[in-house]
Write the structure tokens for this entry.
Amino acid sequence: MNNNQLAIIRPENIQAIVQAAPQSYNDNKNSHDRCVSFGQGILNAIKEHGMDDELDRQAAAFIDKARRTVKVMNERRSPVTKLFDEVRTAFTTLENEIDPAKPGTVAYDLQQLRNQHAAKKRAEQERRLREEMARRQAEEARRKYRMDVEDDFRRQYSRFEDESLHALHTIDSGVTLETYAEAMQRLQAFPRQLPEAWVDARQPSVPIPCGLAQEEAAAVVAKAREKLRTQLREQYEFLVTETLQALIDRMPSKKANLEKIAQASAEEAARIKAEMEARQSAEAERAEKERAEREAEEKRKAELERKAAEMASLFDGQATASACQTKAKVTKRISLLNPEGIMPVISLWWSKEGCTLSVEQLSKMFKKQIAFCEKLANKDEVLIQHESVEYVDEVKAK
């Protein structure tokens, strides 16, 4: 606060205000009452008898005198109200000099520095969040690609397994007395191990995700191949060995049935053949059912693994987002890049709030714009042509 402001609030100045204010107010009150009373008399006469030239002259003289009276009243109270204003300014200056909302104050400058610091921290946190999200998305793409590759390898293995079992059952179903020895030899010599070359040659048929490099995709495929190598090899060996052993164990009884068929009558031979085929069909159904159950269990385990990985990825993403949250209030502010930017702002405001306001509210809100259009109409005769706008002539006596 400067010395002039300090002088304003000295006791003698305050005393001057207290002494001058009542007298100024009383004088203005008397001028007000006399003016209102005189003018009301003219107004009553007009209402009672109607306007004529004499009353119009009296009204014009009164209006002119009222203007002069207002000027005198303003001059009379001006010293008092001016001092009041100066005292109020002295108080508000003290407040404004420490108000954090006022530019130039220490508190305001400190707040700006805090805002800049918070913005810098938030920008850094958002950068880390973007990097972490990109890393997590890439990891998720690799995880999903790996699961898809493993599923594809399992489907390829399932087809190869079907082909191997079909080959065994083809040998078995084609056994005759003449081919018995050859069939037994073929069964005993049938490979029980999953060929390593078959595993090494597997390539996925699923597309590589966007953003995943060829080198990364190749590494995922290699990892999936190695993961499934032992599992599929054990599964193949178990299934083929079990099937082979069952077929080999059944060969002697099958040979005996074939010998009976060869020596029996046609009717007896048909019966023995039907019983043999029924037993083979039942055994095949049982084996197929067991294989289907094993495949279903493998699929169930793979699906559980997939869901567990997806859930872990989801929690990881939520934890990342929580860790990167900044402790600052973020408020969006509109920054117009050019004058045309105000139009969508007004359009949005009109659609959400403006269309609900009354004519009086809108007229008050857009007083400056309406005055500008009125000026154009009176000066340049530029008129708005719209069904919702009309121009009304306002007549004032001079």
In short: The mean pLDDT is 84. The chain is about 80% helix and 0% strand. The radius of gyration is 50 Å. Residues 280 and 286 are 10 Å apart (CA to CA).
